[in-house]
Structures are given as C-alpha cells and as structure tokens.
Amino acid sequence: MEQAIAAAREQLGLQNAKEALKILKPFKKTLSNAGQKELELVQVYADTYLENGQVEKAYPLLEKSCNLDSDGKVGGCSKFFTLGQITGGPDGITIIMKGIENVSTLAGNSLSQEQANMIVSGLLSMIEIWMTDLCMEPEAEAQCEELISKAMEISEGKSSEVWSTLGSIRISQQKFSEASEAFTKAWEFFKQKKAYLEEQLSSGSVSTHTEYLDLLQPAISLAKMCIEMGLYEVSSQIIAAVKDIDEDNIENHYLEGFVHYLTAKLEQFKQQNPSLQLSPENIYEFNEHFQEVPLDITNETLKDTIYDARVALSFACKLCENADSDDDVAKEIAQGASSLLNELGGPLDISELMKLRKGEDVTEVDDIEIEVTSDAE
To answer: Which of 84, 191, 258, 337 is a plausible cystine mate for 92, CB 3.0–4.6 Å?
Structure first.
C-alpha cells in the first residue's frame, strides 16, 4: 500500500490524476472501513478525486480524514482548509478555524513559512465565504476587514494573493481607486515570487516545479480582476507571465484577446469623447457596458489592436477544438471567443495562425495541433 500511495503522489505531482486513480484502485474497498492506520490512503484518495474534478467523491473522504486526525498531527492540517472551502457557509468557517487552530498549536512559538502560508490561505478562504455564502450577514464586511488585516500582518504585506483579495473587498465596497492600487501591488509581489521560483528551477530544484505550476490559477484570477478595473496594461503583463508557465492555456489566450478587444473599444470611446477624464470609477462603469459600444473595425487607429485580439481569440478557438469533448470550460470559452470574433471580423485563417506560431516552422495544417492536456483535464 505504501508503494501505491507514493506512486499515486508522484502522478499527482505530474498532474495525472487519472493514472493516480488507476494505481489506487486495488485499495478502494479499504476506504469504507479505514481507520487511522489507513489515514494516508484516505487522504491521497481525496486529493486524487479533487484533482480529477470529482468533488462529490472527495468530500466524504475529507470528512473521514479530518475525523481520524482531528488535530492534524498525523496527516497534516491542509485537509481542514480544503474541507472548509468545499463546505462553505458557517460550517465551512468553523472547519477552517479548526485548521488554523491546529496549525498554530503545532507551530508553538515558532511559525514556519509553510505554516504561515497555510494560515494565510485559510484566512483568505474564510473571506471568500464571507463575500459569497454569508455576504448578506450584517457582520460580513467587518469580518472581511478583520481577516484581511490578519492575513496582511502574517504575510508581512508581501503576498500577491492577500493584496488581490484586498482588491476584491474594495471592489465590493465600490472603492475602485483603492482596488486598483491593491491589484497593482498584487502584480508586483507575483512577479517577485515568479522570479524567485524560476531561479530555483534553473538551479535544479525539482520540488519547486509544482509550486511554479500553482502560480497559474492565481495569476489568471488576478488578470481577470485587473481587466475588471480597466488595468489593461497590467493584465497584459500578467497574461504574458502566464504564458511562461503554460504557453497553451486556453483561458489565458481568451483573456489576451479579450483585453485587446476591450482596449480597442475603450480607445474608440475616448476618440468619440475627447474631453473625458478617465478614472478607475468610470472605467469600471465602461467595463459593465462595453457590449453596448459598437466597434468600428474599419478604424485605422485600432487596426493593430483588433488584429491582436483576433490572433489570440483564434488560437483560443483552435485550442478548444483539441480539448476533451466533455470539457465544459473549453466549450464556454469557445462560445465566448467565437462571439467576440464575429464582432471583430472573424477568426484568422489556419495558415496565418501557423505562420504566427512562435518558434515553429509549420508546413502542414496538422502541425498546428496544440497540446492542451493539462487544461483539458
């Protein structure tokens, strides 16, 4: 069993949940009567189901592992944060608080960086619950302020995720200037972390690889928030950084095209309203009504921006074609990209996309097939 668990963990590190499930399958019957001796099996099964998108199967195993290891001394405390996130609501808050309490107890007077990161992650998860499931509660705003202050203190104001969450809180309070400042700060600290991890990777640190890949989703989320605030230049920089991590990420290609599309619309709007003084407030309002602004694709000053949008969105559509047939996210992105391309003058021809494929000498249509294994799974 120990060898199977180690092999499954290795496959999870390679983002191959399906292979991990195959390895674990002979021990599936053990789960129903698992005790503390089988805790590691329960936990790896839960992690594998989560990685494979099977939350409904992971949930009871997470509950079981938390009950078997209520203080987190045997199998660690991360399961409490995961279970709390999935559970949501008041119960989710309670579970996450239990996780934070366990980490603090295990740390004693000396909190390691890993433990600090875990507590900060838990605090941010609690904020997310207060901003969604519990947003109508009278104490929601006060709770968010208290939790973000704690997270900022523990992270010493150097966490991209904490600054990004602060930006989200400020948007909900309609403090758009402060939100923009927070997202800009988030990008600064993201760049620092990415550069540090790349330095570690170049020196041969294998363990850093997973941490580097883990930058992907927070970066995409930050790019979306920057787009929402009209920080198009910052979002473009983030999108470029994501390409370093995963060159063929479907959502990132879509966001790249979407940023160019919005940039073109905003530039046209500025041309039509030359006396307009742009601010975080009116750009945020513009973003809420951008679909009402018809785009003049014959405008020569917008020609390059429109072309860049078509390139990125055309690549997004091509990537979606190669995604798994049951990938609902890819289907949604394909629909959105096609809709924007209709407004922009249509997708680029496949031969033109092949010429634009960076660093490749493509001679046949089949060579444009883009590997999207990690996105499809």
So the answer is: 84
What per-residue confidence (pLDDT) applies to 368? 40
Establish how many alpha carbons lie within 13 A of residue 167's alpha carbon, considering only the half-sphere containing its beta carbon.
Answer: 27
Helix 39-51 with 2-13: angle, nearest 10 deg: 30
Dihedral class, residue 346 (left if φ above 0, else alpha if ψ from -120 to 50, else beta)? left
306: left (phi over 0), alpha (psi -120 to 50) or beta: alpha
**Model confidence pLDDT, tens digit, residues 123-173:** 999 999 999 999 999 999 999 999 999 999 999 999 999 999 999 999 999
Helix axes 280-288, 250-272, angle to 10 degrees: 110
Over range 352-358, report the average pLDDT: 79
Domain ranges of the chain: 176-201+208-247, 249-360
Q: Can you read off the two tokens belonging to residue 361?
A: 């000498």
Average model confidence (pLDDT) across the chain: 91
